[in-house]
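Q: Make up one entry.
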Amino acid sequence: MKWKYGVPAILFLLLFIIFSFYCASACKDIVACGNTTAGDYNLLLKVRDPSRPGYQVLTMVPQGYAYNYHHPWTGENISYKVNHSYIGVATLGDTIPNIVKAGMCFTDSGLAFGDADAITHWKNPTKYAWDDFDWIRYACQTADNEEEAVHLLTKDAVDKLHATNVPENLFVVGPKKGYVIEADAIHYDVTEIYDGVAVMSNYGKNLWEKSLFLRTIAPSFNATFQGNVQKGQVIQLGDNCVYGIKLIDIGTKFIEVKQVPIQFNKGNIIGRVFDLFSTTKIQLKNAEKIGFYRVRLQNITNETASIFMCFEYYEWEEKMMEIIRPSIGNITISMMMQWSRLHENDLDGLRGVCDDHEIYPYEGSMIYKLPKTRYETISEGWFSANHPCSTIYVPIHICNTDIYEPYKTGDAAVLSLNLLTIYGHNFLSEPFHEVENVFINELTLLDPIINESINENKDVSFLLTTLDMGMQKQAYLTQQLWLNTSKNKKSDLITPYLFKIWDCDFSETIENIEVVYEKIQQFTEIEEIKKDLLNIAISIVDTRIRILEQSSEEWFLLKDALNEAKTCFDHEKFTKGFFLLQNTLNKTNQQLLTYEKNQINNEENRSLIESPSSNFIPLSPSKVTSYVLEISPNNIYI
């Protein structure tokens, strides 16, 4: 056979392959569309381990914002104007007045965008090449719908501009459907999702054959091997692959294997020398990650091992879908939150969705809920400022006009990382998810009011901004409470009480705060902890009062009652202070219920006028009350 290339070129290629390491960043995305979700909405989760390291923040980009950015080949400045406002997650400093480089975002056209770096060498080679954030920004600021977003990301950015130096898996989800786009500077493949779930990370699938590097691992993403092997044998997933595994030894209940050629890890020279000699034992019926591969030992007979072998992420996807599949048809934001907290041990040793903070110290997550209608106002995001297992997800709506300061400055991310360092992975997941469930319940309680206000062409941005910023503050204060508790000498005795604070709704949470406040009086040096507890309770009531500011003529009386409660706390009259807080919250509940009843009655009257011949049955006050009680049974006081 006559080689097309000379010997030096071939040697260079072999050295590149042998001494290369897998260097993709670590993003994970889940798309759920159509009948897979629990309602009339589509969902997108992205967990971001950023390629631009730093604390993750929320940033708002308004419609009409103008800026200049260079052409991806010539470097010539081009003027851009934002047609659709968007809210993004970016590394601190990658926000206005600098060029916005959001790793995920959602827009007032009802679209959400995410990505995950892929692996090909088809790149724009110039110094002016765009990165993945430029790619997303180019589409999100302009696209009116899902189809336009795909066109901008592919026909424009790839076919016309060949813009990017980073191959990507791009995710677009809107009110009608979702898309998964695999793309580089030359190629792209588009998969449409109407009713379905997609899970993906940092690898190609449909564009696998376009990647020289991936073809050295396997001929395709889903290539597998299942068969008998013996000591000393090398197994590869395809005839033309470079990488494979070698069976070093066979025991009675284990095999010892290593990847060949060696896949060097990032690190110092000592670590790389260690890689030359490292092997992995796989026990019978178990599986392990071996370099790029997942290898399962199925049986051993007469010094022959029966194994299953695949690309590691092929099994990662299978394992993720095994977890997700039972929920298809009922997927919610709450479930997405829990899936973002899956760790390596939850996935049988495969890569966690929530990654190792020692490898990836900065990790931000966002869950997007894109409703079928009114998406320009009530499209919803839930933000985790750092690793989800040590962070409380906080809500933000696309119509919001502001964000609680720590989520803009990076302080929320710093706090979450401190908690992860102190408590480790998993410990805080359960109590933090209780906080999130209360937030979800409270937002659900206000859904009828929000929808009716929109029906009447009323601006709901004040209401939703107030509610979301209140919850952002309460989440931050709750995380601050856990941090301050960790500093107390009796933290091991105080901590169990913190698990009992957030439950069901705001009303029950304030009751629980009062109980915990009384219980911890037995401990010393707890001033900061008590202050945090009071601030959480005060913030809850203050948020409710602010919500009523535009709809109730008596809101200032409620504000006076809150100030009286604060005065009681200042004078250590805690029983009276908590009574005033709870009583004030009850009154806000009554006013919200009254407002909702009036809206329902108005809607019924309109329906009767518009359809006088219909069989109209008036809804009694008791039925209205029951309806609200079902949403939040402890939150209504009649």
Notes: Residues 1-24, 268-274, 605-638 have pLDDT under 50 and may be disordered. The two ends are 89 Å apart (CA to CA). Residues 13 and 302 are 40 Å apart (CA to CA).
